[in-house]
Amino acid sequence: MDQKTFDIGLEIRKSVLGAEFVEKSFASADDFNRPMQELTTEYCWGAVWGRDTLDRKTRSLLNLAMISALNRPHELKMHVKGALKNGVSKDEIREVFLQVAIYCGIPAGVDSFRIAREAFADIDAGN
Amino acid sequence: MDQKTFDIGLEIRKSVLGAEFVEKSFASADDFNRPMQELTTEYCWGAVWGRDTLDRKTRSLLNLAMISALNRPHELKMHVKGALKNGVSKDEIREVFLQVAIYCGIPAGVDSFRIAREAFADIDAGN
Amino acid sequence: MDQKTFDIGLEIRKSVLGAEFVEKSFASADDFNRPMQELTTEYCWGAVWGRDTLDRKTRSLLNLAMISALNRPHELKMHVKGALKNGVSKDEIREVFLQVAIYCGIPAGVDSFRIAREAFADIDAGN
Amino acid sequence: MDQKTFDIGLEIRKSVLGAEFVEKSFASADDFNRPMQELTTEYCWGAVWGRDTLDRKTRSLLNLAMISALNRPHELKMHVKGALKNGVSKDEIREVFLQVAIYCGIPAGVDSFRIAREAFADIDAGN
Amino acid sequence: MDQKTFDIGLEIRKSVLGAEFVEKSFASADDFNRPMQELTTEYCWGAVWGRDTLDRKTRSLLNLAMISALNRPHELKMHVKGALKNGVSKDEIREVFLQVAIYCGIPAGVDSFRIAREAFADIDAGN
Amino acid sequence: MDQKTFDIGLEIRKSVLGAEFVEKSFASADDFNRPMQELTTEYCWGAVWGRDTLDRKTRSLLNLAMISALNRPHELKMHVKGALKNGVSKDEIREVFLQVAIYCGIPAGVDSFRIAREAFADIDAGN
């Protein structure tokens, strides 16, 4: 592990997904999934999100499109919330998901709109 | 068909993919694929690309990520070229595809990097 | 928007998915997802379902196969119910999903059979 | 192996894909891929295509939709040719692929239209 | 149907997924899904799992990787439990899913780790 | 970058894919794709392939299954060759791809068998 990359990743991950959520993920990790927590933090959040060239808002927009295409609802919901933290507006999320509907198909678009509304409802409810 | 949306779509499509390419696509269309040409121009390029809120550069970035995830090499190559026309730099394309490698997996990333290099070579060769 | 295509789409969508469901979808729409409701109605239900050549029963059969392959359970359940409205029998649904099991793999087939049984149970329960 | 199911499968496979093609596939098979040839013939073409309820034309329509969604160009081209043998018209293939464009996304539709045109050109050239 | 292949498949399926589960699946089957139960048992569990060359533990490892890639959570959970029965250790499951995270992308890895933990919790709770 | 993980990754990558191929990949890399070469070497080949618990032969078997499911022919061909280097026999490759045919569908199986035969032919031709 590269400690510096891990530390950068941990900071970004907390900033995007919420410090409390990330701390809870590490606290509840056991020998089974701790290596996955560490790999994700270093490799995904440090080695890639930590690069310059694209800002965090743009990376969030890309993730909304990609994770819709990949059909991963749990991760998509989390990244809708993260996108709002990174300065993506609801209007921009709508535009991404209309583009998803055209390029990935209507069912992908419908699913992403539903998940976004669930994420918004969570936030309104203080979750 | 909504003529106005179609016309907006045709202008954007020509601007992103090249007027010559688009005109050739329509000229070579027959009864079999003309409805697909029209549907794509009106809905994809008019009804979605024609919306404001996200600019063309951002829509190109989203497409690079999504079409990588969707695993469609022909379309990806075309949209790499289109992205350059829309002001996306090679450095930014690299960043999108590193993010693809993390979220869609290493084989998706490797394929997208190879296709991008083919697109760059086409352009350098004047194609 | 092409009003005529939208109107044809709205009629077909209501006929396949149920007028009450569609009216509720529009009534509960907000600025965030109304453009998606409109795009789906015009583009999917009007511009494509509204074409002749293939009848609605055949389009339902195609959707059962495609949406199984696309792995979109919410949409699949809705289209199982829609297929029954379009004259597809339970025996025909079974045949489509056996073909799904062979071409998309056993896990896809198992998921589609389970979802179909949930759809049938909903209908039997008056939902 | 159930010989009866295998024999039904072999007859249907030859009828849809061409006797010459199927015989060549078996003749060129070695210990490595013969079990795949046999599995496909017995289960795919015998145990599923050999069932009644859906006729061959309908099964071809389903395959065009599913294999487009699955993104398998070699198989799709073969099944475009098979669909024509099973009585699917070019107009009907166009309709299936417009529906693919809506439900699986524009890039899937574009790819399927291109592959269909390659299949038609092969046939016109006597291949 | 080949009775011998079916019988081998039934024995293996019971051994991997649990006799009680399989018997309940057949007992609750109706005319709609019985053909799917039979196809799966003969074709998947008999004609493929019944082959030698690869032992059951290796086949379980392959399934964990493939079903993660295919994004089928219900089937994955069942095969995590089956893998443990076939002698795959929790440490080995972790290694497969780290490899999934790299090759299929981080969201696929995250989903598979979560599903594995649900499977372990089910087992600890006696389910 | 963690130099130790990178070095382990480079050694494993060369051992599996061939030293000449890997050296050529780095030699031909430019500013555009060098970061992808480095990311792949460190994280994929170092941080994951470099872990114990699963041996290289097992990791190759998993990759054959996963990359078939992911539908990435270039990468699959390379990993068929790598699998042979890691001690996987042709008979074992056949078994993996029969299991692919069942779980990912017949078209996936057919494609993987064809690609494997191309890989074998390359090797026989000294490539």
Rg of chain A, please?
15 Å
Distance between the termini of chain A: 33 Å
Strand content of chain A: under 5%
- Quaternary state, please? homohexamer
Given as residue ranges, the uncertain stretches of chain A (5+ residues, pLDDT < 50) are: none
Most residues in contact, chain pair and counts: A-B, 29 and 30 residues
Order of helices and strands of chain A: HHHHHHH
**How many H/I helical runs of chain A?**
7
**Structural class by SSE content of chain A:** mainly alpha
The general outline of chain A is globular
Q: Total strand count of chain A, please? A: 0
The overall average pLDDT of chain A, rounded, is 97
**How helix-rich are the residues of chain A, as a percent range?**
over 70%
Structure overview:
The first copy, chain A, is an all-alpha fold. Helix content of chain A is about 80%, strand content about 0%. In chain A, helix 4 packs antiparallel against helix 5 (about 75-85) and helix 6 packs antiparallel against helix 7. The N and C termini of chain A lie far apart (about 35 Å). The mean pLDDT of chain A is about 95. Chains in contact: A-B, A-C, A-D, A-E, A-F, B-C, B-D, B-E, B-F, C-D, C-E, C-F, D-E, D-F, E-F. The interface between A and B is medium-sized, with 29 and 30 residues.
In short:
Six copies of one chain form a homohexamer. With 127 residues, chain A is mostly helical. Chain A is built from seven helices and no strands.
Task: Based on the model shown, name its key terms.
homohexamer, 127 residues, mainly alpha, 7 helices, globular
